[in-house]
Amino acid sequence: MSGRASAGSDQGLRQALLARLSALSLGAGVSGPVAHGAPGAARVFSYCVFAREQIRRQQLDQPAIVVIVSGTKELWTGDVCERLPAGIPFVMPAGTSFDIVNIPDSRTGRYESVCMNVDAELRGAIRQLPGMAAEQPSPARGRMIELTPDLVEAYGHAATTVADPRHGPALARHRILEILMLVRSSPAARLLFAASIVERAELVLRSDPGRAWRVEDLARALGLGASTLRRRLAREATSFRDLLLATRMAAAGNLLGSPAYSVTQAAEAVGYSSRSHFARRFRAAHGMPPSKMRASG
């Protein structure tokens, strides 16, 4: 079991977020998805059920940020489960398949969530911001986003705006962008902005380039089967082996740019026990031996 809340996502902030999202809460007896906002606005909807619900092979066309308002959600990838509590934003990536269990709160008898879809226009706007190209830790280590007072406040503004159809779509999108700007440095939020299966795979591999990765491990982290991952990488004119090699060589180049790493240390950090094997791979990737890059760094 994984996906525990961070220390920063304390109970007070969680309760504050749930209070700010009350503007989007569905009325008594209302179930199913209900869209909010004016036509053409960023897609925000509430979802509510009154009995435990299991959905197999759920896959989103657009990535989304979800907050559970009441109850809990379980996301299953094979036999690995993430249990997501109420009051903490988390990321649902596009193009990956999950088995989902929505569990109503034992006191209220309701499972309810608020979902904000992040469409291509919103993703493009965030990618243009400074710093988005920088390397980030892998979202595979957790999909929950740490709460801050500013993020709670931004959610409150967004909820108030999209709950009132008199507000136009431009203002609603601006409010969603405010949320995305606040979460964009979170490791989990990288799942929102990854443009392709290759980029998502690179994010996972970069988190631990020295790990003895198998294609099955990477596929599990991405919520895919191994054969599906192989096919999707092939469509992008690459393979698991090529992607792992490129990721390791890029990481090695970054490490050797720092005087803190020797060639041997860099080789071990990216998964090579043989310095000569590492040197051959490095020269093929960078056009120079690792010792020369370290000297120039």
From TrEMBL:
MF terms in GO: DNA-binding transcription factor activity; transcription cis-regulatory region binding
SUPFAM superfamilies, alphabetized: Homeodomain-like, RmlC-like cupins
Keywords in alphabetical order: DNA-binding, Transcription, Transcription regulation
Domain of life: Bacteria
InterPro entries with a match to the protein in the record: Homeodomain-like_sf, HTH_AraC, RmlC_Cupin_sf, Tscrpt_reg_AraC-type_HTH, Tscrpt_reg_HTH_AraC_N
Pfam families (alphabetical): AraC_N, HTH_18
GO cellular component: cytosol
Transmembrane segments: none
UniProt keyword Amino-acid biosynthesis, yes or no: no
HTH araC/xylS-type domain boundaries: 199-296
Protein name: AraC family transcriptional regulator
